[in-house]
Design goal:
Bound molecules: zinc ion
Number of domains: 1
Strand content: under 5%
Distance between the termini: 17 Å
């Protein structure tokens, strides 16, 4: 059954493309092409060209071709494969649907739209707690809430001490909740994996682009990657 979840995941990826275009093309957010100013396909539900190029002038617009669509399909399929109950699967799908466009925007313009990250947090918390209630597992419910709170406090400290962005503060508790539903070790490994991947990214950008440490590096994508990788590795 889980491979079929790739289909709604694909739809979520298409929606993510619209969100990324909206938030990452320019700041403040807008719908039009940054090169020619045309607004592709005005519709009730705006669908952006999957090619990642403006249909009128051909200039590239984020995100790259098929990236959100494939990540969305993969994320939803992973949620189904992890299992753990219907609401738990929905929680991981919800995380993918909201956090994926947020981190793709972050990767482009170093800005995590809180209009995506806060609904992400509310949804994963409600769904994980719902699953814990359905399973009659109060310990899992308490751990889920505590994990979200602990990660929120950790990032609150990092925002004041290490200059971590406020957007990261709104994304990280969602990851803490989804990981905390599993176990405390999943929380530690998942968040630590995010830091490791971010560190590798900084090192790689210093080597490839000869950037200094001062250059701003998006923290959202490595955080989400670390959490998803941990979900996958700790499954079953
Ligand atoms: Zn254009």
């Amino acid at each position: 059954m889980w491979p079929y979840l790739a289909i709604p995941g694909l739809v979520a990826g298409i929606a993510a493309r619209s969100a990324v275009w909206y938030f990452a093309v320019d700041q403040p957010p807008r719908w039009s092409c940054p090169a020619c100013g045309s607004t592709p396909r005005r519709a009730l539900v705006p669908v952006r060209p999957l090619t990642g190029r403006c249909p009128r002038c051909g200039s590239s617009v984020p995100p790259p071709v098929l990236v959100p669509e494939l990540l969305g399909a993969g994320g939803f399929a992973l949620a189904g494969w992890l299992g753990g109950g219907g609401l738990r699967v929905a929680a991981v799908c919800w995380l993918v649907a909201f956090a994926l466009p947020a981190v793709l925007v972050d990767a482009r313009v170093q800005f995590l739209p809180e209009v995506l990250t806060w609904p992400c947090l509310a949804g994963v918390l409600a769904l994980c707690l719902g699953q814990a209630a359905a399973d009659g597992a109060p310990a899992a419910a308490v751990r889920t809430m505590l994990a979200g709170a602990v990660v929120a406090v950790l990032f609150r400290v990092l925002v004041s001490l290490a200059g971590v962005g406020r957007g990261d503060l709104s994304l990280a508790p969602s990851l803490g909740i989804v990981l905390g539903y599993l176990s405390w070790s999943a929380v530690v490994v998942g968040i630590a994996a995010g830091f490791c991947i971010a560190g590798l990214g900084v090192a790689a950008s210093m080597v490839v682009y000869r950037r200094g440490l001062s250059g701003q590096v998006p923290f959202g994508p490595p955080l989400l990657a670390g959490a998803v990788l941990t979900l996958w590795l700790t499954a079953r």
